[in-house]
Amino acid sequence: xxxxxxxxxxxxxxxxxxxxxxxxxxxxxxxxxxxxxxxxxxxxxxxxxxxxxxxxxxxxxxxxxxxxxxxxxxxxxxxxxxxxxxxxxxxxxxxxxxxxxxxxxxxxxxxxxxxxxxxxxxxxxxxxxxxxxxxxxxxxxxxxxxxxxxxxxxxxxxxxxxxxxxxxxxxxxxxxxxxxxxxxxxxxxxxxxxxxxxxxxxxxxxxxxxxxxxxxxxxxxxxxxxxxxxxxxxxxxxxxxxxxxxxxxxxxxxxxxxxxxxxxxxxxxxxxxxxxxxxxxxxxxxxxxxxxxxxxxxxxxxxxxxxxxxxxxxxxxxxxxxxxxxxxxxxxxxxxxxxxxxxxxxxxxxxxxxxxxxxxxxxxxxxxxxxxxxxxxxxxxxxxxxxxxxxxxxxxxxxxxxxxxxxxxxxxxxxxxxxxxxxxxxxxxxxxxxxxxxxxxxxxxxxxxxxxxxxxxxxxxxxxxxxxxxxxxxxxxxxxxxxxxxxxxxxxxxxxxxxxxxxxxxxxxxxxxxxxxxxxxxxxxxxxxxxxxxxxxxxxxxxxxxxxxxxxxxxxxxxxxxxxxxxxxxxxxxxxxxx
Length: 579
Known about the structure:
Layout: H1 5-8, H2 12-44, H3 49-98, H4 101-104, H5 109-133, H6 136-151, H7 153-200, H8 202-207, H9 211-263, H10 269-310, E1 333-340, E2 351-358, E3 363-368, H11 374-379, E4 389-394, E5 397-398, H12 404-409, E6 411-414, H13 425-429, H14 438-447, H15 451-456, H16 474-487, E7 492-496, H17 504-517, E8 522-526, E9 538-543, E10 546-551, H18 553-559, H19 561-578
Parallel strand pairs: 3-8, 3-9, 6-7, 7-8
Antiparallel strand pairs: 1-2, 1-4, 4-5, 9-10
Helix pairs in contact: 2-3, 2-6, 2-10, 3-5, 5-7, 5-10, 6-7, 6-10, 7-9, 7-10, 9-10, 14-16, 18-19
């Protein structure tokens, strides 16, 4: 638990004041039954009104102090727990932001969302409850036991028989509950992942008329969560009846035994009334402790899941970078016998013995069948993954020697999946350069052939994109993503099949702008259409993770069979379409 000390220290005063102020309630609860017994034994028995009023006023003052203490305790307990979990959530989110692609692959998005929300909330709930009950429940238990023994030691022995039985029952309940809560949290993960996937892809679902299928899938996941929740909650439900049964049996035993003592003249009625209240307080304190422990078992399952994220070893970091201050200045890229595998197994290589050089300002085209390793190859340049064999060099320096910030700052990348964020078009483009003025933004949009359609919108660059850019077409989204990358003014620009939804005429204009405005930028273009890369300075042909052809368009037409096959099949297809 040392990990959590740093979240407690800034709010230590609240963590201390909360439980301490709750002690005023304990003091009041212990004193009120005794004061009531005095009123019955002396005030009522002797018909002494002044005594009843004076002791009654003391009871009112005690109740008032209890109320102030309870309010203060609840306030500081809430403040401590909310601030504690807010800071924890912030660090958990920061940790996820540091994840490499390989780390992210270990968790589903829904699972991370659940850990950042539901699991943190469970910890907040149990922290708040624990602070309020930390001294209150044990204080009430000890105080009530002492008062009960002071009043009648023999009668108090009854409770000593009940406490071990209750403790054993609570232990068995907790042992059963913990694994069920762990399963329940995993089911919440699964449901959240399913909901996210369904809502994100709702347009695909509707276009394929798969609403019924998705409803059934959701119903199954929801039912699974319901069953797991009921299984866990059935254990929780058991706690209260067990405690109430013990309380009622004990109260009956005390009243029966105490009544006989009163009849024998060895105890006053007021004392039995107070004694019965103390017995109830003892059992109520045990009940409160059991609820805290039960909630703690659920929180422990959540803490375990949060620790899994916090303990995840980041496999990409600056720890071993020897030249953290170095910036990407030229944009020269070199692969030296590079091999890569997602599983870190040499037997399952996605890339094998990749070697090529891209000089500053050159355009490199990469072409190949789906699954040939094109995207994986370019992801090694900004260290989204690390090679397991060989070296990737930028400006003659191993990419692992750069700081991640400086390396990625020098690389502009338009990923295969185009992503825009909620906000205006201008806000999205500023991801490339937060400090860019409007002239720079428009220049980047013009180079990406996006300015025309943006200015056609009523609000222009102030147009709200909606979540994920739902109000623009696929081709428009691609051009905005290219403009965002261009605004970064990178030394290396990577386009991962990022003009696939753009018509050939628009794509030609984008390539022409690349030749003029980005003549000093190294451009690496992954494409399915040979027309997108045929004017490149060098074209790589990939097949099953290996380079099987390298050269200009003319050289590959002459000497690479795979390239010839792609070229002629695409040319024939274009002729059929035009015919």
